[in-house]
């Protein structure tokens, strides 16, 4: 059997992503950021407006989106919020809609879902010549799946109203991910659906484009202890997520597998705490001005 990309099997990908969320502080660290930093970031985007337009690019199942919207409601009580979501996965949209249906206090928010990729949205809006402007746009953990990142950032940046902001969250350039991709990326079955990008690459792109931004560090980790128990099902699934490979344990060459398992225990990638191995999942939140 040869190694193939995790993204070639959408169900397997979603299953491993769910397990990753359970085993990591990925969403907790975002919630902390939303709690502590977002109020300041959005403090002027809605000034004097009767409607706030929010665009979520790759909103997934909406967990984080709803937290962001709650903060907007608190800051701008009674103001109507239009929340549009660009999301190519039908399953994710179904989950998002279910979440909205069972959440209370969303009365003044109007949701619209677009089942498409960011590029499809770009082509569609350009063709319609109706370039809707937005008060807040966010791209959370999704730029890995975009082919032309500089063009995508520039396109969405042009859709910001004066005073609006664009938020990007990605793994940090100093995370275990960035190091792992640098070392093992060339030996893993990356397809052109996924790119190994970190916040360091995004900052280069923003500097090049002359865009103004601030960056915030979001410390986070992922418990990978199970990966070191041969035959552990969760461990195997987490390893699939880490390597972006379908059934890595069964399909990887033995030398690669051994090298990765040895490396993952090293301090460059993980911290050992109370007998657990915690992989460095640090994220960066980059806030770009209009
Ligand atoms: C890792 S998930 C993150 C979801 C959510 N933002 C979060 O942080 O929990 C990435 C999401 O981006 C979506 N996605 C993948 N390619 C995309 C593209 N080209 N344009 C927009 N969204 C995309 C996926 O379907 C998935 O829901």
CATH C-level of the domain at 37-171: Alpha Beta
Element order: H for helix, E for strand: EHHHEHEHEHEHEHHEEHEHHEEE
The neighbouring-strand order within the major sheet is 4-3-2-5-6-12-7
The rounded distance between the terminal residues' Cα atoms is: 49 Å
Describe this structure in words.
The chain is α/β, with parallel strands linked by helices and 290 residues long. The protein has a domain at 37-171: Rossmann fold, CATH 3.40.50. The protein is built from 12 helices and 12 strands. It has helices at residues 10-23, 26-36, 38-41, 63-75, 90-101, 118-128, 149-158, 176-184, 199-209, 233-243, 248-251, 254-263; strands at 4-5, 51-57, 80-86, 109-114, 134-140, 160-171, 213-218, 221-223, 245-246, 270-273, 276-280, 283-289. Strands 4-3-2-5-6-12-7 form a 7-stranded mixed β-sheet, sandwiched between helices. A 3-stranded antiparallel β-sheet has the order 8-11-10, with no helix packed on it. Strand 10 and strand 11 (276-280) form a beta hairpin. Helix 1 crosses helix 10 and helix 2 (26-36) runs parallel beside helix 4 (63-75). The model has no long low-confidence stretch (mean pLDDT 94). The structure holds S-adenosylmethionine. S-adenosylmethionine is lined by residues 57-60, 63-64, 86-89, 92, 117-118, 140-142, 145-146.
